Amino acid sequence: MKKLLVCVVMGFLVCFTGLVWGQDVVRIGANLEMTGAVAAYGQMIWEGVQLARELVPEVLGYKVELVLVDNKSDRVEAANATTRLIDKEKVVAIIGPAISGSMLAVGPICEEKQVPVISATATNPLVTQGKKFVFRACFLDPYQAKAAAAFARNELQAQTVAILSDIAQDYCVALGNFFKEAFIELGGSVVAEQYCRTGDQDFSAQLTTILNANPDLLYIPNYYTETALIVRQARDLGYEGKVLGADGIDVPELVDVGGEAVEGIYFTSHADTTKALTEIGQKYFDLYWEKYNKEPAVFGALGADAYLIIIDAIRRAGVLDPVKIAQAMEDTENLDVVAGTVTVTNGDVAKPVIVKRVEGGKYQFVKAVTVEE
Amino acid sequence: MDWTTLFQQFMNGFSLGSLYALLAIGYTLVYGILGLINFAHSDVFMLGTYFAFFMMGIFLLPWWLSVVIGVSLCALVGMTIERVAYRPLRSAPRISALITAVGVSFFIQNLGLITVGARPKGFPRPELMKNVYFIAGVRIQGVTFWVPLFSIAILLVLFYLVYRTKVGIAMRAVSKDMETTRLMGVNVDQVILYTFALGSALAGIGGALWACKYPQINPLMGTFPGWKAFTAAVVGGIGNVIGAMIGGFIIGLAEIMIVAFFPNLTGYRDAFVFALLIIFLLVKPSGVMGEALKEKV
After folding, report:
1. pLDDT tens by residue, chain B, 297 residues
2. Which residues are paired to A66 by β-bridges?
3. How many CB atoms lie within 10 A of CB B1?
4. CATH code for position A208
5. Are residues A219 and A320 in the same domain?
6. Cross-chain Cβ contact A195/B266 below 8 Å
7. Domain contains B2
8. A59: distance to nearest CA of chain B, Å?
């Protein structure tokens, strides 16, 4: 009798495991900054991707399985993670690093291995240039910088500007240069240009030089870690003028670290997370509030968008073939995602630039800026 | 560049340098006695900021008390590291101890990453540090003003401890000749333990002051200040307390001045500091203040 019972139980176990193993899954890789200098980006994108999977857990009858690899905010690690995801984990598509520098390292690998990669937030133009398998779910730096310059000239009435950018990041350098060009074109002048490096903590030397030039506006196109410290030290040194940042500071950490010093600063952003523009966006924000009970982060929303673009492409491709999926991603048209409706052209999506302001530790919508490309 | 800007830049460098000095002394104390480069020192520095941060955040203690507790905990951690990781290797070859030091450093960093997470946190600053002072028309922030003053006060206390107290004499004796000191009846292990406590407490104070100046803390924050302070210790003459202090000021000023005078070379700021380290190791390994060593690292 006992033997029989054991046999039955074993039988069930075998069947059950067989069922689990037998179920068809589609594997999507996530190559994100879970630790390191910009860990907040990767962690928020990961939150968004997971929420999006809860909303859309299956495609073509396959269950979606996410494979996360931490790239430590480092471009070499990001490249290694990509190879691992493709060769070892056999993913059909990858949600790529948040930052442009790492995306630039990842791109050529995905081109060579013919697996599509989409970054939620890498804004540098070079990221997708001339590539068939590289995509992004956000606007580009020249566009963002142009909008920022227009806002600075027209809304903030700035005549002179000082720029302090991070030369270790492709994103920051490009943004700084594009802004400078656009700002001069609009009749303003750049009175000081200073540089720092990712990981720097002391900016007193650069800021002392900048304050000496007495600009109307300080443009800081850097990531949140540096920007929070820069603004704080600028205020400490007696700077009372306006500050304009970019999408890299659209994270809660800016206020956590910057405190009262970052109050009143403006920045360009990808989306307004206080109100949804699409049905899926509303569902996402509701689920986010339910789960985390806080304002949804923009980076998370863009992470969800990256996931949704991949899933939609797989659905339209009809097969789990990375090459076909990449083609379908390029053909994405008027797809409703969390941050709005997107159409992909040459790997990029077009969207208006949202300007926000820090008020009482919260990010308030100021203006949606569209400029001619 | 007019003279007020120059003076402002000088103050910036002086302020940064005083923080390096505090940290460099920790390296130098331990090196002087054990001939060991304590790579975990920069992580004790990081722990100091987190201890103070949690004391303020969770137990809502006033700033000064949080720092005092944080510093005491740092001393405790330093002693624990010595007891657990270094003492068993006292008679082992130097390289083993060095590798252990690196291991301890990685252990603390990764423990931090797991327990508190990689996202940076803001460090609350006391009112005193937020004040602004004007000296001869130059605007000096509270941090720039107080940090060097605190550092110098602490350095004075340290000199008293090392040069005027019994423990200090024992420390210096151990650093000259461990075996003979042991024969004289000094409890060498205990003296070493005190040294670690003292060095780690300095790291803790350095951490708290650093976080006041750069109020953003994360588990890997110690690495770069640690390397720079180590460079300062070498430049000043490793093993020499006054040298470490001078080295700290040299590194701090050099870093600020290169950015102030050559803005285009900003990217080479760190490279410049480490080039200085290499040059000193090649040309004058005994540093500015050090005596010629019989053996080198």
Report:
1. 678 888 888 888 988 998 999 899 989 988 888 888 899 999 999 999 999 999 998 888 888 899 999 999 999 999 999 999 999 998 888 889 899 999 999 999 999 988 988 778 888 888 777 777 887 777 777 777 888 888 888 888 988 998 899 999 998 898 888 889 999 999 999 999 999 999 999 999 999 989 988 888 889 899 999 999 999 999 998 888 888 889 999 999 999 999 888 888 888 888 889 999 999 999 888 888 766 554 433
2. A28
3. 12
4. 3.40.50.2300
5. no
6. yes
7. no
8. 33
